[in-house]
Design goal:
By secondary structure, the chain is an alpha/beta fold. It is built from 17 helices and 15 strands. 41% of the residues lie in helices and 15% in strands.
Length: 438
Amino acid sequence: MTIAERYRALHPRSAALAERARSAIPGGITHDIRYLQPFPVYIEAARGTRKWDVDGREYIDYWMGHGALFLGHGHPAVVAAVQAQMERGTHLGASHELEVRWAELVNRLVPSAELTRFTMSGTEATHLAIRLARAFTGRPRIVKLAGHFHGWHDGVVAGVNPPYEVPLSAGVPGATLDQVVVCPPNDIKAVATVLERGDIAAVILEPAGGQAGTTPTIPGYLQELRAVTERYGTLLIFDEVITGFRYAPGGAQEYFGVTPDLTTLAKIVAGGLPGGAVCGRRDVMLRLAHRGDPTWDRTERVAHAGTFNANPLSAAAGIATLERCADASLHARANKAGEELRRGLNEALRRAGAPGVCYGEASIFHVSFEGLPGLAGFDRPRRTELYHLLRCALLNEGVDCSVYHGWVSAVHTDEDIQQTIAAYERAFRAMVAEGVFR
């Protein structure tokens, strides 16, 4: 059988659910990244590094809750914390002690964090950080880097995927896009030239590189960016939704030794439950605080609401997770496993006779059939159909991973890594046998 034929044969219940979903949900999915041809698998349970689909098949998981589950699925401490809070209330509609403890943990771990405000997602976090930067500086525009992803809100959909002149989404007014200046990654001169204009409130970027490090940041770039933004009075925002508490207990800013003005967080910060945060310099963050001055509170303060901000269930999960993420040995273990996996996958590509490379940093890995990206990233759209086929082939072999990259957790074992390398090699061989690389 072909990869697709075997995939259909192994996943009949997922196929039926996908058909049912299309009659109730636009396109049948609830997140763009879950789109998969011919249909996605439907998962019904997960534990540790494993998960099981509705057809009873078991997978080693590198999707890991879209990168949120650094401690694996269902970590006992996280489960116990959430269960205990469930009995006390799921939504108190009021301030509570857990949100204070949660913020204190963020402030202790993240170098830039003097104060923290919680949101419900990474998209909300970047939206709030940009609003804060504009209010604090009195400037209208932001700079983002081509290939960097900061969520789906209108203010950041420019320059995400090649061709970069086409926004990530339809439905965004041109006037909104005019407030975003897109610069090539790893080009400090391009950023400096734009900042000279004097109308840039902030530069926002993923510090380890666009889209989870698909286009890695070159050594020294972050240090240069820190210096040039300070020179022009522009705020520097690190989007650490992916790298926060993953590269190190204090995230990529600790790992690289560069402290931004503001940091956006999600995924790991909430321990696998919905949640995000903005943290950073006290003087900037205090733009969110009421002063009791009616004029200032109405015209100068940054308004921020959200029914589920810092909800107690997410706070409980976040506290239990961050208390453990303070132990740097977890990151050392995950980073070492990531290095072993990347090395093994490169050997598997070679043995299978498949073109491409596996690369990455810390506990993140990328498989690319187009080779390594240039300093400015991939200059043309990638062959999406190959990556959909690879994911189907991997699911056939008992491994689940995002289409382009995966996240190693602190609980993946040596056995998991070796089984994964073998599964990837079988998947690569199956693709070669079908002649898809010709």
